[in-house]
Amino acid sequence: MSIILLSFSTIFINMYNVKASEKKEENLIDNENLGKLMKYDAVTDTTTEVNMDEIKEILNSKSNYKSSNDSLYCEGYSSQGTMSNIFNHTQSLSLVDNLQRVPNVNVFPYTAICKIQHSKGTGSGVLVGKNVLLTAAHVVYDEDNNNQKFEGWLAKSGFSNHSFKDKSGWSQVYYYDNWMQTHNWQADLAICILNDPIGDGCYMGFQNLGDSLLNSLPGVTSVGYPKERESAMHPYYSKGKVKSTSNYYFTTDCYCTEGLSGGPMINDETGFVLGINQGRDMLNTSQRTMRITSDVFNLLSSLR
What does the pLDDT look like over 247-277, one tens digit per residue? Predict the structure, then answer.
């Protein structure tokens, strides 16, 4: 069994096979006001509602996540064994210069960070399973064109200056119907089932974290492909701290700009994905991140 160390540079990544606790944690984030989770299958061109009772049955048989105090977490995996130490947190840089170029995309977790390319632009995403990618709904569907799926959509892992580890399109997408109906940014999340297992050698862990632990984190890191830097030809990261929390999202002082949407916000202590970046808040002063709700956590765990 792997041991989670508080020093992120020494985390050894393996999948847990620990019996999940059935106890509902008091402060974990629920899903009740985000609408229904839906599944679109591009092969059959059908849309169905996700049956969360069936998902829980699948989890009971797989038992691949762990409960601890005010947190649920499911670990990542890397054939390289250890993560890069880039997320060691010291202090937040100013909002002006807090965007740094990733020095080496060939080490985990950067091999699990994806540049998303489609007919109308670019975005970011993160592999959380062999063929499971987490991103924002507006990176998959065109909200300005009747929610049509973007043509030519590809996820490219470890992308840097036209080279990349692997690439794939998607065959299925999970999303909140609330976002499709109203484009409510609080429901701006998508889970893509990729055609190919481009995360076979590495994928990140994820975490459903309660308010008290989220607010007490020493630091978080945002990663993605900003359009304003090298025209999104290389990944950048931004360090920061949690500024505020709400039911379905939290804000940080990490740098925010076009192209980072869909990229992960990462817990510096554990290396787990805490949520997906969406954009700036209404005051244009903070990075806004959609939290991984309990239903999304369960769904992601069942797809492993």
Answer: 889 999 998 899 999 999 999 998 999 999 9
Question: For the segment 226-251, what is each residue's pLDDT rounded down to a tens digit?
Answer: 999 999 999 999 999 999 998 889 99
What single-letter amino acid sits at 193?
I
Of 247, 289, 297, which is closest to residue 72 (Cα–Cα)?
297
Amino acid residing at 160: S
Q: Around Cβ 85, how many Cβ atoms within 10 Å?
A: 12
- Nearest Cα to Cα of residue 153 among 126, 192, 105: 192
SS (H, E, C) 60-114: HHHCCCEEECCEEEECCEECCCECCHHHCCCCCCCCCCCCEECCCCCCCCHHHEE
| pLDDT digit string, tens, across residues 3-14 | 333 333 333 233
Mean pLDDT of the chain: 84
- The greatest distance separating any two alpha carbons of the chain, rounded to the nearest whole angstrom, comes to 49
